[in-house]
Each structure stands twice: as structure tokens, then as C-alpha cells.
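INFO batch 0412 | record 1 of 1 | parsing
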Amino acid sequence: MLNSDATDHATGNAEIARQFAALGDPIRFAIIDRLAREGEVPAGALSEGFAVSAPAVSRHLGVLHKAGLVQRRVEGQRRLYSVAPESMRRIALWTLSHRAFWQGSLSRLDALIALEEHSDD
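INFO prediction complete | emitting C-alpha cells
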């Protein structure tokens, strides 16, 4: 049986995995990028600039909201969206915690490329 720390870790990883899955779509990734640059944006304005319909953007926003990546605020008839800072912070921390792996992998790749280039001479 898993202890509490292991359960919390697994739950946190599952949440981050859902968030990465949501970000795996290019339109959703672009929506997050835009919200990060512009701050709070009305849903209607987010539809502009994408080669998909407003209802499709709305569905993408729903996926991002369900994944905890965006916050939604209602103001009269408008729905305003912004990046959920805590979720983005958790993703950044997860990425930083795996930095040693990426750096090691990239260093090995650099060495392999250098070896290949040297053997071609």
C-alpha cells in the first residue's frame, strides 16, 4: 500500500500529466501563450486570430479550465479568461525538478554529435 507522500506525489503527477495533455494541442498551447502575454481576455476576443470557429475555441477553453490551467470570471454577459498562476507554477517546478535529466541527456547528445562529426573527418 502507498504511503501518504507517495499518494500525494502520484496525485500531483496525474494532475500535471492532464495539464501537459491539455497543452499538447497547438491551439490550446497558443491560447495559454496569449493569456500569459495579455492577461485576462474575453472569450470572444480569444476567438480572433485562430483558424477555428468561436465554438471550437470555447471547447478548447473548457478543456483548459477543466485541467486547471485557466481561470474563468463572469462579468455580465462576458466570460473572461486568465492563466491560473498556481498551475503554471507547479508545471514550472516540475520541469525544473527534472532539469538534471534534460541537461544530462542533452550533454550526451552533444557528445554523440561531436563524435559523429569527428568520425566523418
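INFO post-check: Strands lie at 41-42, 70-75, 78-83.
INFO record closed
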